[in-house]
Design brief:
Elements (H helix, E strand, L loop, with lengths): L3 E6 L5 E2 L14 E5 L43 E3 L1 H7 L3 E6 L10 H13 L5 E4 L3 H13 L3 E6 L4 H9 L3 E5 L3 H15 L2 E2 L5 H8 L1 H9 L7 E5 L4 H15 L9 E7 L4 H7 L26 H11 L3 E4 L1 H15 L5 H15 L8 E6 L23 H11 L1
Parallel strand pairs: 5-13, 6-7, 6-9, 7-8, 10-11, 10-13, 11-12
Antiparallel strand pairs: 1-2, 1-3, 4-5
The structure holds pyridoxal-5'-phosphate and zinc ion.
The site of pyridoxal-5'-phosphate has 16 residues, from helix 8.
Amino acid sequence: MGYVETLICRSCNSETEPTKILACPKCFAPLDVVYDFDNIELTRDSFKSRPPTMWRYAELLPVQDAQNIVSLNAGYTQLHRCKNLEKYFGLKEVYVKNDGLNPTNSFKDRPASVAVSKSIEFRLKVIGAVSTGNLAGAVAAHAAKAGLPCYIFIPLGIESGKVGQIEVYDPHIIQVKGTYDDANRLAYLASETYGWAIANITMRPYYVEGSKTLAFEVSEQLGWRKPDHLIVAVGSGALMRAIWKGFNEFDQVGLTDGSKTSIHGAQAAGCAPVANAFESGSDRIKPVAKPDTIAKSIAIGDPGDGQYAIQVAKTTGGRIGSVTDREIQDAIKFLACKEGIFTEPAGAVTIAQLKKLVEGGYIKSDESVVCCVTGNGLKSIESVPAGAKWHTVEPTLEALSRVIAEMN
Ligand SMILES: *Cc1c(COP(=O)(O)O)cnc(C)c1O
Ligand SMILES: [Zn+2]
């Protein structure tokens, strides 16, 4: 193991040693991990006997010594072929990548596993995260497994299912009276003051690497082929950028053939700074001061990787749009009733956006599309639309018969 070559700045291209560093020392832009691709020998056969987790791609992940890996076996989640959606939209191939099936029920187990592993490799003694809910659970779980003390920063108003999940791992929960952006600023100050390894701040260049395994898996599960389109939710924009990096790296090591995937982003209308910038043709993102949406896990008003998400959409022929909370709720119900998959609101934005892309003619009937369901519906049951068909009866056949007669 150990193929990390250097860190490269996304803005000024200068190289930095792969140490504990969160941004380019020259211009403060984000840093990307670069691997020694010439010496990585991977063929499609290499994967035949590897375990079905994200760590099957270890050569392309930034942990140098396998002993440092902290894993709850995240990844290699189901890629569902969605025949009912194909029929409904008149499309050839529709898939849902169900990352709600991860150990803590969201895709955040991928970056959390890498961040906690890398913290162990750097001999750091305290881990943490700033989170809209899902990352908190993922980091707290991996910290528990690693036996590290953990500090979780969350804003006010996250869903009760997520709060309960965080509590069970017993980290220090620091609830910040404010938005995600307020929590983010405080967590940054804490990391500077106390030397804590905040997964998505201190460990940022390594942390985001975990997310690209979602793209690796989609390629492998489609038979070493990339889809024509992929749709993903955009909060900070980090996941969308990581998926693009993942597709590129599989091409670079020769596992896939360089064919293009249009990567589309979806936001909630109540917090859509990236979609708004994309739609107005600008690279400048105007932060949203008070996010207001049921899609709490993507309610980030000042998205750190927003401009890079726009770049990804532009270079791949993708689009970034927004959908209303009403459309999100309809999509939660629609996906459940058509395909049996229960998503949280942030996953449903991709289904609502699929509808818009098909209607707008951006996805053609002979093309393939993957929608990323990034979190499990059980985490935010309060977002399930009301109106289920309930019938409360006495425990007798007579009573049941009366109710059934009333139905018809
Ligand atoms: C964090 C999160 C996202 C968005 O990820 P970013 O990298 O912040 O854009 C999407 N869906 C769910 C369920 C999430 O928890
Ligand atoms: Zn730089």
